[in-house]
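Task: complex structure prediction.
Instruction: return structure tokens for all chains below.
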Amino acid sequence: MSVARAHEGALGHGPRGAKVRGTLFYILLLVSVSVGFILLFTLVIDVVQKGVGYLDPIFFTEPTSTDPDKAGAGPAIRGTIYLMVLLLVMAVPIGVGTALYLEEYANRGRWYNRLLEVNIQNLAAVPSIVYGILGLAFLVRGIGLGRVLLAGALILTLLVLPTVIVASREAIRAVPDSIRQGAYALGATQWQVVRRQVLPAAIPGIATGSILALARAIGETAPLLLVGALTYVAVNPTLLGSFTALPVQIYQWIARPQDEFRLLAAAGIIVLLAILLTMNAFAIWLRNRYQRRW
Amino acid sequence: MSEMESAPAAPAKIPGMDEKLLEARGQDAAPPREVLFDVDDLTVDYSGVPALKDVSLEIYKNYVTAFIGPSGCGKSTFIRCFNRMNDLIPTASVNGTILYHGIDLYGPEVDSVEVRKRIGMVFQKPNPFPKSIYDNVAFGPRVLGWKKELDERVERALRHAALWDEVKNRLKASAYSLSGGQQQRLCIARCLAVEPDVLLMDEPASALDPISTTAIEDLMHDLKREYTIVIVTHNMQQAARVADMTAFFSVEVDEEQDRRTGILVEYDDTPTIFTNPSDKRTEDYVTGRFG
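Output:
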């Protein structure tokens, strides 16, 4: 009887210590989660409260001004959108091309391919300010491009390229080898295998990774400041003209002594956050829409 | 069984397989022997370590030829030599000759892509493309630039693979919505759509349930009228049921260098391999004493 009861007891409650430790660990996890969540939530609430009053048509169309009530972020918003488009056009094809080469064509046995791989991994960890310095020395002064939108776009391209390459490689590697073999066995050439099987299967992953990389890039301020994003630009940005971007504008407003400009900065942050959220949401939608099972 | 133990010299039998089965299978088979592949002294190395060594045999047109043997005996490596799939493994090197219609498949002017158009392959695990059923079958013809009458070609291939009736109303559905056995027949249809000469099948039924396995085996019986079929199988009963010729591979262990190399032990018509093998190792294997 006593044996049976001991068994019942064992089923009912485990060792007390282990249970307490389990609960403590769970609480610890909850605390970790809430730190990030509460901070972000407070930040967003604070920014929205301050900035929402300045989100009027003037804000989206007018350039900045010494009078906070007339100041807007029109050129900065357009500059950021232009940068995004340029980035998309430059960084994604180069990044996907590099990833395809490394995954599908490169012979790992060759030293230069291994060197390339190590290099790309390290480049992803280089601080963005270093890219800014490179842009200033090489693009702006070296080849005399000047402080123009194209220089900013080029330097952001360099900045996101490693991330795009790494994300694309992951997506390409996730395509099972059995699919490549099946295609080869039907008499497809390497180009046909890549073009008709690997790339279509990898595109959702590539797109998701690229969008997240772009979202990260458009929040960058430091490299743009170095390649000469101005804070006062009255005209619409052109490829070879002076430019500004939202993060730069926000940075400049915050540095002003008057409180009204901080509220303007908050409005700028709302717009930037909205753009970022939209991009991330699009990435998630893409991922769910095209999710594949092998 | 007891008879076999008391008199080892008597013809060996596989449990569950009687001579009737072999005879029935043998009657509709055996067209005149016309050599399609002539393999001579073939050795395959991975990074310089031989995986398969000194294989010589002939494969006949419109025959079903089975490769059997224990794991690691190189039978899958061997079958991949026939459509040059080993080319895709950078460390693999193939030495020796495989003549196909008298042309060396590994000759300098032979393009591996051309080889694979004529010699199709079905893999162990069904590997449909992440596309619709239709697009899976149409992939091969599209790659080859056969754009005319694509619908008819797809239907013909699916009928040939005995899958048409099951999928004709949902050709646009994902290939992954099919069952495992259907997926494997889809992969066979995909091969047939490019009208190859030869079908290589690397353990095509090992991942399937018994009913699907029967369906694939029946299919092989039908297909051999038009195609030459080479099949690797783990399942001896399967080899006995479907194959006209059977090659038994084994492993040669080199204790000193700790290497295991596949070798061809015996190659003969299937009834002989299963009832009257000339090599002791074959007899031990087919009677289930080893492997």
